[in-house]
Design goal:
Length: about 625
Amino acid sequence: MPLKQVYQQVEETIKQIVPSTVKISSIEFEGPVIVIYTKTVGEFADNGELIKKLAQALRRRVSIRPDPSILADMDTADKVIRELISEEAGITDIFYQYDTGEVIIEVKMPGLAIGKFGSTLNEIKKRIGWAPKVIRTPPIESRTIMDIRGYLRSVGKERRKFLKKVGDKIVRGTGTKQNWVRVTTLGGFREVGRSCSLLSTANSKVLIDLGVNVSSDDNVSPFLNAPEVMPLDSIDAIVLTHAHLDHCGLVPVMFKYGYDGPVYCTQPTRDLAALLQLDYVKVAASDTKKTPYDSGNIRDAVTHTITLKYGETTDITPDVRLTLHNAGHIIGSSICHFHVGDGLHNIAFTGDMKYEKTLLFNSAVNRFPRLETLVMESTYGGRKSIQPSRKEAIDSLKTEIAHTLDRGGSVLIPVFAVGRSQEVMLVLEQLMRTDQMKKVPIYLDGMIWEATAIHTAYPEYLNTQLRKMIFQQSDNPFLSEIFARVDSVQMRNEIKESEEQCIVLATAGMLNGGPVLEYFKQWAPDEKNGIIFVGYQAEGTIGRKVQRGWEEIPLQHYGSSQTIKVGMKISTVDGFSGHSDRRQLMNYIHKMDPKPERIIIGHGDETKSHDLASSLYRRYGIETRVPMNLETIRFR
């Protein structure tokens, strides 16, 4: 259907529902949302059912925004907001959401900013046109979030054009009456790393994840040169399950080579992905490796990202609707559920997921309105891949640390910046606060502090108990005095060479770069010291070699070669993983509602993938597949 005709139909539907007293300035398709611009926003505010009726009739998300002519420019709006909100409220940031027409006011004392019965917010809205929303200032400031907000503010006009382009593309209609659904496996099948899948229909092509294998020099990237993928501008959308590099690390490459479409994910995923991608480029450059993209490509990815909340169903192509659900893996991690066509097929991709409530997150979601196909991870899918309980893991960590401290040594814990580092921080804080562990300084090196700041900026993605603790400043475990941020090379050198005992949490988690190697090189020869692995160590990584007991480790770091003798005590504490173990994976399917007709197994080495697939088939009678990379599976 011609775009002009689509607009006419939408306009006629809106006119039939909206009272004549409401003056509509224009109707636009912006991203996945139909935006109605009006000079009488109050008419909609007074009729709560109106937007719901419009969404039902149009079968799309609807947003009501003030006509641009009544909006103050951002500099003027800033002045008005600071004039009307008292200094005691403590404004820390003001940023504008072009996607929603809101101005977000971040303050230390929300009650003082809102005013009695919302009087201050009403006055702000009257004077500037923007819809004000007050949020509490996070306990830890995130430089990444501040930079992204500032950048999006600077590209507001470009982003508006982009959203309109995406919106027009979504409503273009289907060009064929043929109905089929396929998935092509482009990376991360019968292996861990470079996760990428292509969901194709007769009208749409959607990439799910686009990761890099940081532990390999050979199979680094997914098969983006496959005929199904090329040309890159034929891809309608990219959907990210979460922000780990093996799932998001190559998204900027798409923009480098001509992709100009949307990236869908949660807000925490957008921010963490940008943080980790920038670090990936930095580490590659420091090791004199060729970088696949630059910071400009990362900014392009941020500009083109459309963030979604859990449970928010959104059209992303003419025949594909997306809903994100909590995956329990890291903050903002999602199980991506796709509804294809008018009930043609429903398929979900788990990404990495944890089917257990942890110190950080609620358990992964496994209930959906409909589900025919599930694409599922199998990192710990092997028959013997049983992890200890969280209590056992905590006891084991406490014991291993105590042994090292009793020997007079220091403890090095390689961690991933996102997820495991925050969980280990919570455990160490609890153990020291309750006098179950000797009190020594705990140093956080690498991106851990910044990643933790992003966690505190999005408390709605954390579990209820932790969310309450974060907003009770005195009980915030992340702000404990036992933690110290390593913020300079000088400080790092002083810690390495000091005789004072300490615990260091440092990135990267597999010893494949980052500041953790500086501590490892200094401390590894000394038998008094200990290194404790709390996360997965992929084949080929330095971490896996150390874990297996290599007595000498060859290192290429910052352009120089050297061999490190390992005398320190090596131990592994399982149970802190953000992945489900064998029992949890089986239980995830056992309690799933509805049960899928088929399960496709990925994100695990070949043996574990086959083991999980055969066990699921035998126990539940569900068809299972373990495809290799570059296989295509048709469902309809």
